[in-house]
Design goal:
The chain is an alpha+beta fold and 355 residues long. It has ten helices and ten strands.
Length: 355
């Protein structure tokens, strides 16, 4: 999630656990510690692929943060003026604030390395978009009331309860969407294909389904309010003929570890040269994928891995128009909206019906 939301979550937990004893201090300390893991963004690894795949790494590890929480609890027991607060209470305070940060991040699409330094893929159980005002607002209101009134427990605890209830709603919405898309995938023989079901920007009412299928990937939009309308599956090229070339480079293998099968490969003309670009299909929206990276350039007919990967812009055309149409589609399947409305037409192979 965004850093403001993470700070609000930490502040709300701080107020809930120790607000009665520490007042505003519990909220302020909670806000600082709640956003602390995101400080890894200031680290420049000197390469675009490294920067994006190392983010949410060591600083989001449950092992690292649990160790930090224990250390802070022990120090507070010895050094903090509030001698009546037990080690257990300090441990609950620091542990919940620090550990909920990566756990909340894991509920988004990006991927969080919860088990660093173990060599496992980042964890992602997406039920909320990376910025969701409905989730964040109760936390911010609760924290704001605590800071204004000085009553630092009740309002943050209510904000925390409402935000947790929203996550439960999001989980239910996702299960509904998965039930609706399952018959469509079964009809196409895609029941076992890797799939990603995630909310579209800023809401949990309209969901995007992405299915990886060898040389192709499929996209569908499924809304909570779609009723009996069958989801429409659109099929795109994935540039699989370039996949092995990408995997021949260390950065290509790193991206494959980071994004799994949800990568699209293409050749672009950049600086007058044929350049192999890999796009992470998970993040953003078709036509508005923010994470695309150079992996190799073609020289005298042969591909050569780039010395330093760069992030390149997506093929998006009109962000405002896309958001307006998405907003309309959230509450009704009419007017129709296709994921292919915002991408180059030659990417689309087929569609299972009218979007």
């Amino acid at each position: 999630m965004d850093s403001i939301t993470q700070a609000a979550l930490g502040a709300a937990i701080g107020g809930t656990v120790l607000g009665r004893r520490l007042g505003r201090k519990a909220v302020v300390v909670g806000a600082f510690l709640g956003t602390l893991p995101d400080m890894d963004v200031v680290i420049d690894y000197g390469d675009a692929v490294a920067n994006v795949s190392q983010h949410r790494g060591f600083s989001h590890s449950l092992f690292v943060l649990a160790g930090l929480a224990i250390a802070l609890a022990l120090l507070s027991t010895r050094l903090a003026p509030a001698r009546d607060i037990s080690l257990r209470r300090w441990g609950l305070f620091f542990g919940l604030i620090l550990l909920t940060h990566p756990l909340l991040d894991a509920l988004t699409t990006y991927g969080t390395q919860l088990w660093w330094p173990l060599d496992v893929r980042p964890v992602a159980w997406p039920i909320v978009f990376i910025i969701d005002p409905i989730y964040s607002l109760p936390l911010l209101v609760g924290v704001g009331m605590a800071l204004v009134t000085g009553r630092a427990q009740r309002a943050p605890s209510w904000g925390l309860a409402l935000s947790c209830a929203y996550l439960v709603f999001a989980l239910g919405a996702k299960q509904l969407v998965e039930a609706r898309i399952e018959p469509v995938l079964a009809e196409q023989g895609l029941q076992q294909a890797p799939r990603l079901v995630q909310p579209t920007p800023f809401n949990t009412l309209l969901w995007r389904v992405t299915v990886a299928d060898g040389a192709y990937h499929h996209e569908a939009l499924v809304g909570v309010f779609d009723g009996d309308r069958d989801p429409v599956l659109e099929t795109y090229t994935r540039g699989a003929d370039l996949e092995q070339t990408a995997l021949d480079s260390a950065r290509g293998r790193r991206l494959d570890w980071f994004a799994g099968p949800f990568l699209r490969y293409e050749t672009r003309q950049l600086d007058g040269r044929d350049t192999l670009v890999a796009t992470d299909l998970r993040l953003g929206f078709p036509g508005f994928h923010p994470f695309a990276f150079t992996l190799a350039t073609r020289q005298e007919g042969d591909w050569q891995a780039v010395e330093t990967s760069e992030q390149v812009s997506s093929s998006s055309r009109n962000n405002h128009d896309a958001l307006v149409r998405l907003g309309s589609r959230i509450i009704s399947p009419e007017p129709s909206l296709c994921t292919s409305d915002f991408v180059p037409r030659h990417w689309l192979i087929s569609t299972s019906g009218r979007c």
